[in-house]
Each structure stands twice: as structure tokens, then as C-alpha cells.
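Hi R.,

Here's the chain you asked about this morning:
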Amino acid sequence: MLLKIDNIPTIFRQPKISPFYYDLVTKILDLESKNRFLSEADIRFKVNTLRKNFYDDSKKTQNIVESFALTREVAFRKLGLKHFETQILGGLVLNDGKIAEMKTGEGKTLVATLPASFQALSGKGVHIVTVNEYLAKRDKELLQVVYQTLGFEVGLIRENMETLERQYNYACDITYTTNTEVGFDYLRDLMSDSVKNRVLRTFNYCLIDEVDSVLIDEAQTPLILSSPKPLTSDKYPKALWVAKQLVPNRHFIPKYRTKQASLTEEGYNFLAEIFQTDDLYNPKDPWLAFIENALRSLLFYQKDQDYIIQNNQIQIIDKFTGRIAKDRKWSDGLHQAIECKEDVNVTPESQTLNSITYPKFFSLYKKLSGMTGTAKTSEQEFREFYNLDVIVIPTKKPIKRKDLPDLIFETKKAKFKALIEAIMSCYLVGRPVLVGTTTIEDSEIVAETLKTLGIEDCQLLNAKPENSESEAETVAQSGALNSVTIATNMAGRGTDIILGGNSKYIINDLLRQIIYQLIVYGPKNLSLMANSENLNKILFDIQILLKDFDINLIQNYLDNVIDIESHIPQTLLDERIKQLYLLLLENSKIELGKTRELVCNLGGLLILGTSRHESRRIDNQLRGRSGRQGDPGESQFFISLEDDLVNRYDPNIFSPFLGRENPNSFSGTDYLAVSKTLDALQDRVEKFLYENRKSSSAFEEIYEYHQRLYFTFRECILEYSNPLNLLLNLFSFRTLNNLLLEEEIELYDSASLNQNVFNIKANQYIYIATLLSSTALFSYQQLISSHYLDISKKLILEVMDQKWTEYGETISLSRDTIGLQAYAQRDPIIEYSRLCSQEFSELIKETQSLIINSLINFNELNKTYLGV
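And the predicted structure, written out as C-alpha cells:
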């Protein structure tokens, strides 16, 4: 067979891929000849048998083989796509709870069907997580016919869904969602005042697309569930004015790496004089925080680089994906400082109700896996923080893309001049070019320059809404003849770039034009490629059917059906439109094939980067857009010594090479020295960011430990149905509180995190709780009204959550200053752990008192109400 170990070409052999996987691939391929004769009823019967045998460990390997083979057969029947060998290999790696690195164009979307279908046999649910809603919707619509044929229900979570819709879709066997939606649903479930309002069920298996973007790039960006609080401060405008008067390196020291500004002694005295105070840290008049945020907004956060202004609002740009980070705000007053700087409406500050980091959230799943095109460079981090191995899956065809050496210039001006010349030379011969920039500003500079030089049809893709609405089509067509595309970061775009142009998008555009002409003029005025009897009949049928539909419904159909080819027709008009689409697609193959050949002869897609990123992974994501499935292609980066990477992390590193005003790129020994130094700088930055994430993880672990304890306690309160149950929970939880106070458990020690402290000394508290609750029941003659209990429960939960919010704010403020403990020769993590333990103990004390008082008060009211 094709993938038996002895027959695998050397280029496809990967030392870290177990021979066991290759044996499984062979067995899966062997079933192809048998499965092709199965009816859909036979396939469904086999799937049901696999469901029954899912938990039989002795049949596990055979179950995997049969499930994968059946999924492969159904995909071929319904989509015309048959998983090739390396895709099966990737599916096996994902099924084992590992990360599969698969290059762009290798069909990761189809690969996901294999582990998803097998894991769905458990009946406990599968989550396929994407980085944006467009990809979730596209993948669900494309693949649901495969899952449904196998007997699985498929769900999709969208932003504006109500609770019942979410509950239904999460209850499906396989659910497509985004990392933000599922994360916020979890936080909302935790804060729910009724079990019936929860939408998620037990976390089982999760497959993350673009896993490096979610688990590494977003690792330090917590999901924050918040509520607005009234804007009570008028300090923002004055703080901004004062910040503009401060002199760098005299009144404050800017720290570009961490985006912080530290006051000097002279700066502190200057501010104390302005505000006529001896204590800038005074919590009753906290000017220092406002000044620091104003400085940060002026120095480190720039329009069209870190954010855009849309509808008179500040919208944050995700630096890893180049998209708007919807509904995200900077915390602790920074967002309001930036709003004040840009003279837009200053929005109310928010108070954090609950939060969680992606690493902590995704650790809740019983089995976690992920796929991406660029994971190898972060292999150590995946293994250390998530216990996830990275397996590089070989490409179906050898990669032909040539990654050319960087061109390095002294100034940005010289860099962009050379970049424009390179683009123009390609455009004149028709070679497609994709330019990757790191900021909106740079993308617009390049686009406007090209337009002044006569390239009016260059495509711009960045976070601005007018440029991002047609994202998928822009990316898909960037391989077409004469195309020039300028885009910000390319992570998670999810669309293949096909040389010569993407036929689906071309035919979709043609289809829209045809339907519009049919509505307005009828079929006689259409000038199509040939006088086809079949074509004319379809056009005539469509024109007749169009009369029964409102034009807005037709428009919605064309907008919402992403992939007509795989769409299952719901009406006769649907069916005729699909027939027309397929006929146009077939007739265009010859012409598109000629165009593709022409682009290949020109060298394929040329990728041009305008600067290095903080991580090599992001650079590689851009390069990976060229050379898909063995296509020819090239990539090259244009770098300057004035780029943001240099200015932010080591602005003096290239001092010997500055001031020459050399318009040409470096060469010879100068090039070798500059290139080597640049590589070393990028490596240092990666290590710096890794250490930051590592340090942040240690602090988050402490907070999240207490978070877990609190919500365990809250769950006890939420589910109580009588005073006996409540008091048992209350007093048994007291055990933990005493342990924290009396035995001083050090929560920074990972060993203690795994100890089950609930059972220690619990018996004495359960005994007391039983006595008290029994006395209460006897005293009130068991006449306590369930209605009053429900009211008391909701009030208790409301006040508990307010106490939890206050705890979170206290811990957040201490986190910002805990680093100062290092100056006193104390470990900040240990001090932070002790502070969290003390604050949490106070939280539990107050909560217990609250519960007891609430029960007494409500029982007294209840007695009065009952006349006892």
C-alpha cells in the first residue's frame, strides 16, 4: 500500500511520527474498496455500531480505522473530496490530542472531519473552535452534509444568539464556534443565577484551528466578563494636558518593551506641585494612575496601528490577525485615556465580574488538539504549558516556494521605494503580488503610492470595515493574473490562494450578474459563452422562478450561501441556481487552466513582507500563503533599521550603520553583520515575550485557583434546595477557609494546587452543620416556604458576586504593584499568593456571615407570613 513504511519516500518520512500512525493510514485506505459499495443506511448502521463500542478499549484501534474510513467515503460522495494520505495522518494526530502542523493549502478544514466524527461517537460533544465567525459558519455549512450523513447533529454558535439557541447548538454532536464565544459562554454560565440558564455541557473534545494564535498569541489577553459603571471621573482631560507637559528622560522614563512609563523623582515632585498634594497615590484622589495612562496613550498607542476610530469609538486592532478585536477594551482606565486623546466620546469604565485566560479555559477539556501551519517554532511552549506535542505533517507535494534573503535598508524611505519598484516590475508582466504589512498606516501608504503610479485596482485588506467586508474574496483572488494585494497580518484568513484565480469566487460574481440581468432584462440579452440548449433551459427556468421571490430574498441567498457547490438546495430555485453555477464552473475550467499555467510560468505568487514581526511564526504565516500544494512561488522581506521591531526593543543596536543616507540595500560584510544582528534581536524578542507569558501564567494560576474555589462554593449555594443542604455546604466549606488561615497553604507551590483540601477536618463541620440545620427545621416546624428560599438564594448570589467583583478589583490593583516587592528582596509571586489567600479568606468570611444573616432574616419573614 501507498504508505507502508518501506514504501514511503524519504522526503515524507518524519522522525517524530510514530510508525503506528502509518500502519493505521494503511488500514484506513484498505477499507476504501469495501466502503464504496455501502448504502447510506449501511453507513448509518455501522456508525451506530461504533457508538455502542466507543468505550470498549479492546476495540479502540479498529473503531478509529472504521470511523475514519467511513468519514472519508462520505466526504467523497457528498463533497467530491477524498482525504489523501497526509490528511488522514493529520487526522490521527489530532485524534490523539496533539497539534498537527499542516502547511497552508493542505486541507486542514477537511482534516477536521476525521477526528470530529470519531470523537462525536462518545455522545459527549465536540467543539471545533475557529478564530472568527466567518470561518465557523463557512466550515459548518461546507461540512454539515458529511456529518449529517453519518448521523451526527451539527451546531453553530453565532454572536447574537439567545440562550435557547445556544443550548440547542451546544447540545449537538459537533458544534462550530469561536474562541471568544465559547469562552464568554463559560463565564456567563459560571455567573448564572439558575442552572436552567446555562448553555454549555461537560467539556469533552476540542479541536482549535489556528491553535498558535489562540493559545500563544492570545495567552496574555484574558476574556473579561464585565459590566459598565458610571463615569464619575473628570480627570482624563486634565491628566492628558499635564502628560503633554512632561519631558521624557527627565520627568519619566519610557519603557517601550512593556509599554509603561516610570516617573522619575523630578517628575513626581513636578506633579505633586501641579496637583498640590504630598501623596499622588492617595486612593481618594488617585492622580497618578490617570497621568500614567495618559502618558501610555500618547507614547505607545497609535491610531491605525493599535486601534482605529469607527463610529466615534475606539476599536482595538488585534496585532496578530490584523482584524478589529470586537467588544474588547483596554482595562484600568487606559481605554478612556485613549478616547480622551482622540477626542471621541469617553465611555464608562467597566468593572470585571469574572475573567479567565485561554490557557486555563482550554485546559478544562478532557482532550485538546489543534492545527496550524506554524507551530514548530513554539513547540517548547506548547509542551511546557499545555502538555501538547507538535507533529509536523508532511505536505502532499514537495514545497517549491523559494524564500529569498531579506533586503535590508538603512531607512524606511529607501525600503518603501525599493518595495514599490519590486511591485511595479511584477505588475507590468502580470505576476500576482501579495504585500504583507504590520500596520494599517503602512498598508495605506503602499496602496496610495501604487494608485498614483497607475495601479488603480490594487486590493487593500486591513482592519478598517470598508476593507475587511470582502476579506475572503480579496484573499482568494490574490493569486489571479495582474493582481496586487496589500494586507495586514495574515493569521487565520482561512482562504486558499489559487494561482490564476479562485474559480468559485469568479463564478459567484458571474452568477450574481446573470441573476441581476435576468430580473431586469430577461435571458435574451445575456451574452454567454455558447449557445447551449441546456444553459438556455436553465436560464429560462430561473427567470420564471424569480418572479415568485422578493429581490431582497434573492440578495440574502447570494450573500449567505458561502459555497453554492456544496449547498443543499431547499427550493426549486435553489436547485436551478446550483445547476447554473455548476455549468458555468465546468465551462470555465479550460480558460482558468490557461491562466493558472501563465501565472506558474511567471514564478507563481510573490510574497513581499514590509518588516519583521515580533515572532517568526507570524513571518512564516505570511510566507506560507505562497507555494500551496506544490505550486511555485517566492517570498522576500524588505527591512529597514528604522522598523518598529528595532525602535521598540533596541533602538541603538544599529547605531554604527545609521546616518549614511544610503538609498541601496546593504551588501557584503555589512549585510552579513546587520542580518545576523537582526536575527539575534528577533530571537531575543521571542524569548522576552515567552518569559513574559511564563511569568504572567504563574500569577494567573494563583488567581484562577481561588476562582475555582469560589465557584465551587457558589455552585453549592446555587443548587441548595433547603436549609439543611445549604448549611452543610456552608460549614463544610469553612474547612478550606480555616486551612488557608491556620496552616498558611502556599498556593504558588504547584504541588498544593492539586491537593484535595475539602475532606480534611470536614467531619466536625458537617456534624455542627447537621445539628444547627436540624434545630432550624425543628424550630420552624419544617414550614419554610420554597418561594422565600428562592428569593434568598438569588439575593445571596447577587451579593456574593458583588463581593467576588470587589476581590477581583483588589487583586488586579495589587498585581500592578507587586513587582516592587523585588526591591525588598521578596519574591513577588510568593507575596502575591499570600495576598490572594488573605483576601480570599476575608471574602469567604463575609460571604458566610451574609448567608447566615439572610437565612435568619428570611426565615423570620417567612414565619410572619405563615403566622407561625
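Confidence is low (pLDDT under 50) at residues 1-15, 735-772, 777-783.

Let me know if you need anything else.
M.
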